[in-house]
Amino acid sequence: AAKYMGGYKVARNLIANLVESMGITVPVAIHLDHGHYEDALECIEVGYTSIMFDGSHLPVEENLKLAKEVVEKAHAKGISVEAEVGTIGGEEDGIIGKGELAPIEDAKAMVETGIDFLAAGIGNIHGPYPVNWEGLDLDHLQKLTEALPGFPIVLHGGSGIPDEQIQAAIKLGVAKVNVNT
Predict the structure, then answer these.
(1) What is the CATH number for 35?
(2) Half-sphere exposure of 21 (CA within 13 A, CB side)
(3) Which segments does the entry list as coiled coil (predicted)?
(4) How far is Cα 7 from Cα 20, in angstroms, rounded to an integer?
């Protein structure tokens, strides 16, 4: 949405001004979701509180390299980083995913970049779920969480996933669920 509002700095300043003018006293997070590399760097520079760098559409080695660079720059400013391996089906902010399962070795390599949260393809998609959707691959999620004990996994595309599957995913280690209705 920020790109339609005049840019990331304008959006950040708008939020900061709203917080001040409304007397909001609880912490307010400003999060970039599914950002390309350049967008992530810009949001780090202007003071977002968290970044979701999405290089899942890139070759895995390039995704890992850029994620590590984002982590170094973000962590230097106290900003948390989420990154994606595998691809989450559907389209989000111009990034189109085919819905591939996240390879375990790629997930481990991504965690080694220093990220704080991992978005991993486990059969989830952005947008409406088709009637023939087979559900989350909970067996694959279990393999991921066993390979990355205690590491926070993010489930994107939460809208439309049946509650019992979301609950099962949380029991298996999902720490954050993104919804967009």
Answers:
(1) 3.20.20.70
(2) 6
(3) none
(4) 20
Q: Which helix (H) or strand (E) holds 142?
A: helix 138-147
Give Rg (Cα) of the chain.
16
Residue 131 CA neighbour count, 13 Å, CB half: 0
Q: Total domain count for the chain?
A: 1
Tokens representing residue 55 in the block:
């290089």
pLDDT digits (tens, 9 = 90+) for 81-110: 999 998 766 554 444 444 578 899 999 999
In the chain, beta strands by DSSP E: 31-35, 50-53, 80-85, 90-92, 95-97, 117-120, 153-155, 174-177
- Encoded tokens for 99: 């819905």
- The answer to whether residue 10 sits within a structural domain is no
Residue 167 tokens read as 């609950």
Question: Max alpha carbon distance in the chain (Å)?
Answer: 48
Specify the pTM: 0.88
